[in-house]
Amino acid sequence: MVNLTIDDKQVTAPKSATIYEAAKMNGIKIPILCHDKKLKPFGACRMCLVEVEQMKGRQIPACTTPATEGMIIRTSTPDIVKARKMVLELLLLNHPLDCPVCDKSGDCDLQNLTYEYQVNSNRFTDEKFNHEIDYNNPLIERDMNRCVLCGKCARICDEIVSYGALTFIDRGIETKIGCEFDDGLNCEFCGSCIAVCPVGSLLARPFKHKARFWAMTKHPTVCGYCGTGCNLTLGVKDNKVLTTIYDEDQGFHKGQLCVRGRFGYQFINSTERLTTPLIKKNGRLIEATWDEALELVAARLSGGAAVAALATPRLTNEELTLFKKLLVENVGTNNFDHAAGYAHTAITEGFARSFGAKASSASILDIQKSDMLLVIKTDAYETHPVVGFEINMGVKNKGIKLTILSDKRGKLSKLPDATTLVHRPGSEVAILNAIAKTLIDDNLVAGSAATIAGYAELEKALAAFTADVVAAQCGISAADIKKLASEYAAAEKALIVFPVGQAYSGHTAELATALANLAILTGKYDKEGCGVLCLSEKNNSQGAIDMGFFAQDGGLNGVEILDACAKGTVKSLFIAGENPLTSYPNHTKVKAALEAVEFLVVSELFLTETAAMADVVLPVCSFAEKDGTFTSTDRRVQYFKSAIRKNVQIKSDYEIFSNLVTRLGGTVAPTPALLFTEIAANTPGYQGLSHVSLRKEGAFAAVATTPKFVIPQADAPFTVEVGKLALVTGSALYHNGTLSQYGEGPMHVCPENYIELSRTDASLYKISEGDVVTVSSASGSLQLKAKVTPRMPAGVVFSPYHFTAAPINTIWNGSPVTSVTVSK
Amino acid sequence: MSDVAAQQATDQQPAIDLSLADVVIDKYIDIPGNLMPVLQGVQDEYGYIPRIVADHIAERLNVYPSQIYGVLTFYSQFHLKPRGKFIIRVCVGTACHVQGATRIVDTFFDKLHIGHAETSPDLRYTFEKVACLGACGMAPLAMVNDSTYGAMTVQKVEEIVADYNQRPMK
After folding, report:
1. Does the structure show a pLDDT above 60 at A808?
2. What share of chain A is helix, strand, coil (3-state, %, to 5)?
3. Does B65 lie at the interface with A, CB-CB under 8 angstroms?
4. Structure confidence at residue B117 (pLDDT)
5. pTM here?
6. CATH, domain range B86-166
7. Residues of chain B found within 8 Å of residue A168, distances taken between Cβ atoms
8. Ordered structural domains, chain A, with CATH
9. Quick check: B7 contacting A, CB < 8 Å?
10. Can you tell me the ipTM of this complex?
11. Distance from B159 to chain A by nearest Cα, in Å?
12. How close is the nearest chain A Cα to the Cα of B72, in Å?
């Protein structure tokens, strides 16, 4: 700590603090334009000039100058005020004064400072800029005429997002912010640049001229897309969610969001939302009253084990608990599941076997505390972009070593000094087993490992997985396997990160146990910055597991439920929010099952293709219209409150389940808050939590681990049929599940399905970027737009799974790798 | 030269051979801070930095394409459009100015039909006014590529243009 005097006040600050930070910590405000606490000091705008007595009264920038012992600082002498006024005059010289039509007005740092420093005239005159406004993309408007060259957008795009779309171009008076060759912006559209822009240069186009900043109410909530558990603030006016508002103090991620979180909110107020229950009569869905619909559903639910349910892990913990209670206690069935029945098995079976806990022991916060990250599949960035930002920052700012084991290269591969080991698709488990064997053979295991249950069996079972044998099968060299093993063992702290999801059918219990073995062998599992972090797909995937909403106690899992529907043993199926027709593997099979089942009820926000097949459709609330808790992938339990009033015609899933419980003769907690007290009492790790205690910020549900070695079964190496390509499925950066199809933002930038292929294959099959190609597998064929990218290895093609219009499950039946032909 | 003319000139160029750039990149690839020498070396090969080469450098050196563009536009030594075979520089610094550099410049304009920082459509000439060539004793001064011409007169301009008009382009 250092002691210093700021404006005659004795203060202390940490040794690493700058003058600006020291002042801020002690409640003294120094104006800034170019500084952001998440970014490295830059010192461009000169608004934060202060006087330091020891520096002979010179004016120095507070944001870049370290605070040192005994400094005597004055932040607002008449000279300083005069200098700041001049800085503002100079900025306003070229900045157009079009505040009345600028969306930033009211939230604009330049406007606020001009007001604060009463700059009501300008001693200088010059022409205004006349840069062309960039309207080339549908999400971000770039008006460089308003730019003050603080560089925050270019810096955040580099330092945190690591995309580098923006930079300073030209020099001197002609300097401006732009993209390469002065093109229009074409990036991953996370909107971080909009968030930090202190003026109206970068604006969200979907929000243009929708509302004045001060006319909106701000509602903090939890993002409803992926499992990261980002916090976000919704800007609401007239009961409509109009935008997301940046709050640099919000959440572990300090307000950083991805394209889905920032631009994917439009589904909330979509005109396509269902507004009334529908009942199928004579093959058509007809509007009905809630009483009719629920009466019908209740009647069909009393069928014991002939009833089954699939729920989306986007429901709240309270809703999932209530749904489970309805099914187990009132209906009398154990046949319920989520996430296609396999996307959660890494946790429910893998971690359960290896760690004795159905959760990741590591948290997202461990990423930046680690020394080495082992990421399985570069897709971890696409599935969880804000986790990707944490990895970016860790690697770039803290020099964390990053090794990626993946079937393709990706954005993470581009990070400084990142090593990407590209292996043949579907061979992850074998490689991990080979690493485990190397650890044992080269005596790189922790001293305590041999005492942990299952060690001898594991050692025996791994005998066949020598680095040489596996290397020959997997397409990476034995030396690389051995190097990775020794680096992993040598790192003081190492964290393994891997995504799971409906499109990652290979990321199951076997993969999780193989990864767990590495962590347990080296003793890197229960410490800070260590462990295995499973990135679960949906916002409440971990919650669904914690609430026990998955196949257990002899109940059928997701796949078996659909099989039973087809066979006729399940007669009534309740689908709450899932869209199996698009997101579950094997379209034909899913469709046949849904056609065969006697009674199908779907509760949904939209009339999805699954809902269109239902006998009863129940319109439900989005996350913005209800209260409850979500549990993020690292078990952060977060409470959120409704941001808008729901349409009177729709009900929350909670209300629907509670109505059905009552109709079936049960009793239920009247509010989610009361039910949560029951959940807290009965769920391990949730003890002591309540809606009230979670109101301010979320809390981690504790995970206790008891390690054990489990033998992971590696599939035989996948061989692509001769003359065919290996198709791997996954998530696109802009989407999550099928919900994001109803968010305008994601659909603006990624409106349709595509297939990515390598340059080698592209020239082999004479396919160029943008060509429509026919992709065929044994189960069907699909027309997709081709994307030729340097990231794909030859022989491997990638296609995401989110799109109803061209569902990948018509050619993909759930195997981790599929042989396909691609032709023009 | 207008942008359209420059574009036409670019289009007339044979397809750009990236292997020339690869030779330069290979030379510097393992050296930290290699962007400047690579860009300079590549410009020596092509005479300017074609966009496709800039993108190729970005991919191989793993730097953002935008960052390369930032560097290219910051330094006046880099050129994004094709340059003439003969680069004529006329000094308009103080010493040359008082010795009548303006007339020298105007005569070049008349003879070459191109203005400051422009390239003739046949890619023979690029003309530049420069602030000082560092040989004020020889004012007014002009340079064509590496040859220096001191004590310039209007007549000498005509001689120089006539001379270089006849030189081969290869």
Report:
1. yes
2. 35, 20, 45
3. yes
4. 87
5. 0.93
6. 3.40.30.10
7. 70, 74
8. 2-76 (3.10.20.740), 126-267 (3.30.70.20), 278-341+542-700 (3.40.50.740), 345-535 (3.40.228.10), 725-823 (2.40.40.20)
9. no
10. 0.90
11. 37
12. 8
